[in-house]
């Protein structure tokens, strides 16, 4: 069975991507910080016939991330697809969004740690085995503001744009290697309860595009606008 590892696996995109790949015969490694919440997702997937397992890690603690992905590779015999999409709680003061005029090295640093450094660390944990196999897929998710920034997300968008830039160049470098890298920018609110006037879509509506990227392997990026 091929395996997808989802870093930042929660009830929204994480679960929907797990279901999408699980329905195609993938085993699923779910990586996030909270074991209880992960176990709940593993049980839900299991009830739907998808084999999944939970691995705890914090993307801000890069050693824990590397260890979790190594454990997932051990458990499933390798990782064929890495998907990176942690989403911070809006209430987390350490990762609070600020507009560009309020950006500082400090409040940019925390976002860079979260998006760019976390994404790079996740990729570095799985790349050596993918290099050896001459095969693999690396998918990274950010918001639409990584492409078209909006003032209220000044520091978030800058860090997400840094991850996006690195992924697009990773795609360039890996072309012809058998390993495929791509970026997904989600330019809508996921689920219910978004800001008035802002477009929204369900995670289930968005998730098939990850399978399309994986299957077609011909784009460095998809921007989902609904
Ligand atoms: N939600 C939106 O409206 C929206 C809009 C545009 C783009 N996006 C992007 O879409 C992706 C998925 O978003 P989603 O809201 O659907 O998320 P989700 O898959 O429902 O959940 C993401 C999970 O990330 C985990 N997480 C948070 N901080 C972490 C950390 N430091 N280390 C490891 N895991 C961490 C959380 O679980 P734990 O608490 O267990 O760690 C959370 O449940 C993200 O890339 C996000 O940037 C979201």
Automatic annotation (TrEMBL):
InterPro entries: NAD(P)-bd_dom_sf, SDR_fam. Pfam families: adh_short (PF00106). This is NADP-dependent 3-hydroxy acid dehydrogenase YdfG. It comes from Actinocorallia herbida.
């Amino acid at each position: 069975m091929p395996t997808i590892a989802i870093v930042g696996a929660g009830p929204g995109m994480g679960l929907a991507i797990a279901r999408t790949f699980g329905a195609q015969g993938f085993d699923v490694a779910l990586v996030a910080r909270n074991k209880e919440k992960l176990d709940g997702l593993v049980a839900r997937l299991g009830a739907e016939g998808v084999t999944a397992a939970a691995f705890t890690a914090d993307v801000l603690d890069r050693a824990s991330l590397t260890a979790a992905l190594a454990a997932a590779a051990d458990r499933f015999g390798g990782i064929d697809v890495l998907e990176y999409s942690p989403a911070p709680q809006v209430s987390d003061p350490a990762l609070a969004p600020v507009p560009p005029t309020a950006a500082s090295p400090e409040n940019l640093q925390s976002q860079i740690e979260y998006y760019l450094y976390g994404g790079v660390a996740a990729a570095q944990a799985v790349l050596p085995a993918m290099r050896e196999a001459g095969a693999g897929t690396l998918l990274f998710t950010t918001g639409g503001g990584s492409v078209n920034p909006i003032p209220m997300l000044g520091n978030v968008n800058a860090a997400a744009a840094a991850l996006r830039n690195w992924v697009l160049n990773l795609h360039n470098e890996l072309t012809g290697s058998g390993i495929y890298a791509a970026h997904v920018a989600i330019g809508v609110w996921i689920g219910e309860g978004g800001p008035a006037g802002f477009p929204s879509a369900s995670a289930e509506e968005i998730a098939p595009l990850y399978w399309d990227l994986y299957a077609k392997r011909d784009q460095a990026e998809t921007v989902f606008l609904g």
